[in-house]
Structures are given as C-alpha cells and as structure tokens.
Amino acid sequence: xxxxxxxxxxxxxxxxxxxxxxxxxxxxxxxxxxxxxxxxxxxxxxxxxxxxxxxxxxxxxxxxxxxxxxxxxxxxxxxxxxxxxxxxxxxxxxxxxxxxxxxxxxxxxxxxxxxxxxxxxxxxxxxxxxxxxxxxxxxxxxxxxxxxxxxxxxxxxxxxxxxxxxxxxxxxxxxxxxxxxxxxxxxxxxxxxxxxxxxxxxxxxxxxxxxxxxxxxxxxxxxxxxxxxxxxxxxxxxxxxxxxxxxxxxxxxxxxxxxxxxx
Length: 263
Ligand SMILES: [Zn+2]
Known about the structure:
2 domains; binds zinc ion; Muramoyl-pentapeptide Carboxypeptidase, domain 1; 9 helices; single chain; EC 3.5.1.28; PGBDSf; alpha/beta; Lysozyme-like
C-alpha cells in the first residue's frame, strides 16, 4: 500500500510554490513611528559612524546643497537609532519605527552659553519631503511622528530647539495646539496654575514616559523641557508654567464629536 502511494505522490512542497494571489484585508505596516534625530557630527563622520558602528538609521540627510540623502537600512529591516525608548504604551521603538538622522552638529558651549547650530532651509525641505513619503506609505499617525528627545527625554535632546517642528505641523505631519485656544487657556492658568500632578498626568496622556508621583523632580523637569523644546523652543527650561499648561491642555483635548441623531 505504502509503495503504491509513494509511487503516485506529487512533488514535495517548496517555498516557491506559495500561493500569494489571495491577500488578507486585515493587515498594516509594522512601522508605527517616524523618529527624527540630529547626528551631532559632520557629514563624513556621520556616514562613517552610522554605517560602520553599532548604531544606524534608515536615512541620513546631509547638510549640503543640493541635499544628499543616504538610505543605510532598508525600511523593512530594523535600524538601531532609538535605544531605550517609549511613547504611550509602546516601548523599544527600534522595532516599530523608521529613523531619520539629520546631519547637524548639535550645540557648542560658549562663554555666552550654549549655542545651537541651525538647519539649512534646503535640508529641512528634504527632511519634510522624505517624511511625507514615509508617513504616506506606512500610514503613520501624526501623534507618532516624534523626536529622539520625545521618546527618551531623560537621555536625549535631539533634534534640538532649532528643529522647526512648526513646519511639520504646517505640512499636516504632526499635532499642534491651536494658538488662539492656547492664548485663551493661558489666561485661566495665569490665575490658577495646575499642580505638578496635573502636568505629569497630561504629559503621560500625550505620550511621554512621565513619573506620576506628584513631586516636581528632575525627571519631570526633563519631560517638560522635551515638550517645550518641541512646542515652545523660545524657552525650554523645564518650568511648569501657565503657557506650557495651556499648550498641554489644548493638545490633549478630545475632539468634540456631534451627538448621534435620534432615530
Ligand atoms: Zn538621536
């Protein structure tokens, strides 16, 4: 019997005969986050470190004109740019993100204080064009387009206060608090500033890993500074002030949904 069966058996399965004609409706990209960095190095050194050492990013955007963009890691592979990181209930974001490193020397200490290096216009234009394409292809939500300092506020401060997040907002790529609503809310908080526990709760609600103990400690200051660096780069000293509270209140406001019509 066995010998008869084996005699008429078809060829054994091989992977190249997998039928891919039917695709599942329930599927999406594994990429949920787009994370932006500056390299704190010049272009040749950035390329060398990101291609030869234990750190990497999917893309490197240079500061030359016209802008050179390197793709160092394919998008379906993991790059090592985020490190210990979190946002909302997601952690270890290397696994679920695409990383863009922007060539920029970061900052230098001078007798007048810390001086940050600005980003050339054409470099930012290139980052926005690249980000738009990645966001569209992977359907990345605006609340998941972040800086390294947002996902690791205790360790990282890139892409820094001169990175123009507002241009990302104008391009519809990130969330931004409505400025009139912020001005209105600030008047309320000028008279009555929320306590630190409120700040901690709002920062966590927005996405930051934030202590919830109600103490105004250095960790909490670092998270406030990360939020300010992104949304109010003119002053990012980590002080829990009325304008920061107003921005937090407005940006975490739930959109008002109209009541369902009665049947
Ligand atoms: Zn970084």
